[in-house]
Amino acid sequence: MNTRAIDTYDVVGIGFGPSNLSLAISLEEHHANVLTNPVTSAFFERQPQFGWHRNMLLPSATMQISFLKDLVTFRNPVSRFSFVSFLHAQGRLAQFVNRKDFFPTRQEFHQYLEWAESGMTNVVTYNSAVTAIRRPPPDDASSACQVQIEVRDTADGSLRRVNAHNVVISTGLQPRMPDGVVRDERVWHSSEFLAQYRLADPAQLKSVAVVGAGQSAAEITKFLHAQLPHAQVHAVFPSYGYSIADDTPFANQVFDAEAVDDYYYGNEPTREAFWRYHRNTNYGVVDDADIRALYQIAYDEDVCGTKRLHFHNQTKVASVVRDGPGARVLLRRLDGAQRELGVDAIVFATGYATMDPTSLLGDLDRYCLRDASGRHRVTRGYRLVTTPELPCGIYLQGGTEHTHGLTSSLLSNIAVRSGEIADAVIKERTERHLAAAGSAVLQSADKSA
Length: 449
Ligand code: FDA
Ligand code: NAP
Hints:
Blueprint: E1 7-14, H1 18-34, E2 41-44, H2 83-90, H3 93-98, H4 106-117, E3 124-125, E4 128-134, E5 147-153, E6 159-169, E7 174-175, E8 187-189, H5 193-199, E9 207-211, H6 215-227, E10 232-236, H7 249-252, H8 257-264, H9 268-278, H10 288-304, E11 309-312, E12 315-323, E13 326-333, E14 338-343, E15 345-348, E16 352-353, H11 358-361, E17 393-396, H12 401-404, H13 414-448
Parallel strand pairs: 1-2, 1-6, 2-3, 6-17, 8-15, 9-10, 9-15, 10-11
Antiparallel strand pairs: 4-5, 5-6, 7-16, 12-13, 13-14
Helix pairs in contact: 1-13, 6-10
The structure holds dihydroflavine-adenine dinucleotide (FDA) and NADP nicotinamide-adenine-dinucleotide phosphate (NAP).
Dihydroflavine-adenine dinucleotide binds near residues 46, 52 and 410.
């Protein structure tokens, strides 16, 4: 095992998607204001380079939030890392404004994220998968207020360890497949879509299926229909039809920073009402324009008698069996009727599970308190509630739907959330340094007495 010397940081971030990129910027902006004694930080990302859901960067897919909900603006409207600054740097500000549209394409937003990341490369290490967080070994001189983070180099397999006073876990959503369905080179989850599609020979894809009725499913169905003009495209979903994503102004308020307080300090009935009334702002729903586009395609095919986009509504996939280069898919309608479909590829756009830090925490999880439903208890400041034996700060960016509401897995609130976490880390660091300075003064007073 190749181990290097142990560095110690005020904060270590696990994952470098938009959430921890925003945190890195927030810390950097703090440093620019105070100039001395910067908070020391390191971020570890398992990908070889920055990438934000690259396998879903479909041509002309648009963002689902306003460009103003970028990495910084809601926390610091004058930040140099805003989407507006990016547009200015690209010489595209006027052209963007002429569009009169709040929603950039995901391609352009990805370019923005890469541009922001290029100013933060000094704090991030790629090809670095965090495999465990644990206490420093007993013989380690590090204080009881630190945790040790184990990082595996995904290129050469070597391990390194670093210590931290605070950890911010932001490892993102987990792809979700139906029970019993196994992914392979012809059975895909939407999170791997473009990578798998590029490996396949389009001429061989004569019959394809897409499962689900969320935004991913709608975008992939549209894409496959456009890219494979020779293919039959089957959309399979449990609802009667695609439902619209509610982004009207009153509903949109659930993504405001204030809504986090309303959710966090609400009681069980108010929290439950958030989900019951407003789940349709995000989950299992599709943008109006995409719904209309899919309907128009099907209608035009009806008119021309050239049907190749097929909707199997009120239907779930009961099983998938690989058969030569393709697969046999058993479709089961909600009324029990069954039919078999032969496909050359099938895409499960069946959503994601929320981030769960349990496996990374390993043995440390026993110091993390849980609520009556077995979910982690989290402070309003996104810190895991721990027993006194674990005094280090372990913060979550994601995985807090049960405590902080709908924005937990989204971009809407990351500028504010990461600013709050940065403030907490800075405060902890200041108190720690003051305490150390105080005890040094006492020791020297003892010596001179
Ligand atoms: P994100 O998943 O982006 O990043 C987590 C990072 O952690 C990844 O880079 C991963 O490689 C890394 N990682 C994981 N485990 C690791 C480990 N053990 N060690 C090191 N690194 C590790 N939301 C929204 O508000 N508006 C939108 O338009 C969209 N659009 C959208 C499109 C698609 C296709 C999806 C699937 C989701 C969205 N979302 C969204 C929601 C999405 O969760 C959100 O945009 C961000 O990706 C959240 O950023 P995070 O940094 O929290 O997670
Ligand atoms: P999602 O919204 O959770 O939708 C999953 C869909 O799969 C739902 O229709 C669900 O039906 C269905 N499903 C789940 N299990 C199933 C099964 N066993 N059989 C058949 N259908 C099943 O997931 P998503 O579409 O991937 O979206 C996830 C997040 O990414 C959202 O925040 C979304 O806004 C975002 N996103 C954004 C963009 C963009 O910015 N352009 C693109 C794609 C995704 P039920 O609802 O009945 O369970």
